[in-house]
Inverse folding.
């Protein structure tokens, strides 16, 4: 038996050092499809080697261990503050041993807290659910380079010729891909939210990263748009790291939520190839690991 | 197609730098220094470094460093996005006498002009490849400005061996990033 804190420390370690299976398979496929003896192939071979080394050395895949985003599904009445306290302790420990970089900086003074704790860091999203048995705790570590190439569009947008329809959404999403080039560490994955307000649009776009790359959107229009975005992006020749090449995106996941009549936001979050997401189902007391999710 | 790998030893002579072309694969051996957002602004605001970087290479990187038995150990060290240093980079190249900038994502026209004028190249490391690149760091020799800027933003002096990069901006005004952007923009216009 171990404590909730110890199990969350293991969740952080695995998230930081091991790639989820679905993403590493997509990267290997991209390597196989890339033209040989090119800088794009060099980039993907380096990525493959890096994934292997990080796992075997138990050290971070990427030095930017990113924003620490917890998504927790729990039974109604669950002790959320208790979870937060254990997670904070686990984060401090993970930072001390180098699974996480010191990544929490005071925005006014520039002072690094050194522990990854501070106002706004880490972040927790709790979803209590009546049918939930045990605690489903998922973690996404999202680096700053890919966060910086995220974009939010307010339609209509005459600059890119985007109206308030699915075609307009497509134009907005493709503009985000073009502007990002290799700067978000391509080949990446897009999480997109159509609708919402400026805050919830980005929040929902990030929740798309919890989906498996090879799942299928239950909404046929969105499923078609997701496929179309990936196919179109991979005809642009941006390629791994923006070196030029065949794979620019590994996936695109889109959701739609309602909006105000006055607003039509398309929020695009970019996840780098070093797609760090893991999850664990714990017993309600946090002491037992029932299963790993990804 | 890329050319064969070229070995670069720091400090690097200007003639070697001027012979490099976009697409060349290089491996760097010797001393390099990290420097990112805080350091660039600090230098721009008139700050100075307690170490001479002439002929050297500046690495846009905020590594994961852990002290083990009194010695700093580099746990992860991939490149960070360089575009944020665009306002300062050309000036920093001149001020420090740099011959190479390692980063990711490429930089803009001002840096390109600086590379041409002062004899410097932009070297693209593979973003996210923090373990492959940390493996090339053989020793952490020193650290500067650690108290002031915190670990990710400090200037780390690293002894590296065969550190792999691609030349994506050369000292003749060529930029792979500019080429790929123009090409992908034209391709997208046809697909919309």
């Amino acid at each position: 038996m171990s404590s909730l804190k110890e199990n969350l420390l293991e969740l952080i370690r695995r998230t930081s050092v091991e790639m989820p299976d679905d993403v590493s398979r997509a990267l290997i496929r991209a390597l196989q499809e890339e033209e040989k003896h090119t800088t794009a192939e060099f980039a993907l071979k380096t990525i493959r080697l890096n994934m292997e080394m990080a796992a075997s050395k138990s050290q971070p895949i990427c030095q930017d261990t990113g924003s620490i985003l917890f998504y927790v599904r729990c039974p109604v009445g669950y002790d959320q503050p208790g979870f937060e306290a254990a997670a904070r302790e686990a984060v401090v420990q993970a930072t001390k041993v180098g699974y996480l970089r010191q990544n929490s900086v005071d925005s006014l003074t520039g002072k690094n807290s050194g522990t990854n704790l501070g106002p706004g860091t880490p972040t927790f999203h709790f979803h209590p659910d009546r049918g939930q048995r045990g605690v489903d705790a998922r973690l996404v570590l999202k680096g700053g380079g890919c966060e910086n190439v995220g974009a939010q569009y307010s339609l209509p947008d005459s600059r890119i010729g985007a109206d308030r329809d699915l075609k307009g959404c497509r134009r907005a999403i493709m503009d985000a891909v073009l502007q990002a080039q290799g700067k978000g560490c391509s080949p990446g994955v897009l999480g997109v939210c159509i609708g919402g307000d400026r805050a919830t649009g980005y929040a929902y776009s990030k929740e798309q990263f919890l989906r498996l790359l090879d799942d299928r959107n239950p909404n046929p229009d969105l499923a078609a748009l997701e496929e179309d975005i990936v196919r179109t992006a991979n005809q642009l020749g941006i390629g791994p790291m923006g070196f030029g090449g065949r794979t620019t995106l590994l996936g695109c996941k889109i959701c739609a939520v309602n909006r105000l009549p006055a607003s039509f936001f398309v929020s695009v979050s970019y996840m780098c190839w070093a797609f760090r997401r893991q999850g664990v189902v714990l017993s309600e007391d946090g002491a037992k690991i029932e299963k790993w999710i990804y | 197609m890329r050319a064969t790998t070229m070995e670069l030893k720091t400090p690097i002579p200007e003639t070697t730098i001027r012979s490099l072309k976009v697409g060349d694969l290089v491996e760097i051996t010797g001393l390099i220094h990290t420097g990112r957002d805080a350091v660039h602004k600090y230098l721009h605001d008139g700050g100075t470094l307690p170490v001479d970087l002439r002929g050297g290479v500046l690495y846009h990187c905020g590594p994961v460093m852990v002290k083990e038995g009194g010695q700093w150990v580099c746990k992860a060290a991939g490149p960070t996005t360089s575009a944020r240093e665009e306002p300062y980079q050309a000036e920093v190249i001149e001020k420090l006498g740099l011959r190479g900038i390692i980063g990711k994502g490429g930089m803009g026209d001002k840096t390109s002009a600086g590379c041409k004028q002062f004899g410097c190249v932009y070297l693209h490391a593979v973003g996210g490849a923090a373990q492959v690149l940390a493996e090339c760091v053989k020793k952490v020799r020193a650290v500067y400005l650690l108290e002031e800027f915190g670990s990710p933003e400090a200037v780390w002096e690293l002894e590296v061996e065969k550190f792999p990069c691609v030349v994506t901006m050369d000292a003749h005004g060529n930029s792979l990033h500019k080429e790929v952007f123009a090409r992908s923009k034209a391709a997208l216009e046809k697909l919309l």
Observations:
- Chain B has a mean pLDDT of 96.
- Chain B touches chain A through 52 residues (CB under 8 Å).
- Helices of chain B lie at 14-19, 37-44, 89-96, 109-118, 130-135, 146-149, 176-191.
- Residues 29 and 161 of chain B are 4 Å apart (CA to CA).
